[in-house]
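@channel sequence for tomorrow's demo:
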Amino acid sequence: MSLIAPTSQLTNYFTSCANALAVILFLPSVYNQTAESIRNLDANLLYFPALLPMRASHLPEPVLDRDDLVCKEFISFVANLLKSEGIIVNTFDSLEPRAVAAIREASVFPTVQPCQFIVLDR
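structure tokens (generated this afternoon):
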């Protein structure tokens, strides 16, 4: 199988779905709203644009403790991801329209393009 990218300017391929990408891209804003680690917010629901509210415990363990080195590196990864010209995400517009729209509408994020053009090599 070959992937045909819609434009040649996209620089990152995100190998998960648009919902996961939305959580990752909006996660730094959650940390900017509190001085606490997300682990301590488990009684509260977290709200990410276009997604259903979720408990902090549903997030991956490494991002729950803001003082953990892995969490700091993850937030740094997101910051670098935001510097890219664009992201190809492993989904289709019609499969996750709300998540794709939320990412596209947030002007601080790079261009997001679902990988919609797949050609089977024969």
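heads up for whoever presents: The radius of gyration is 15 Å.
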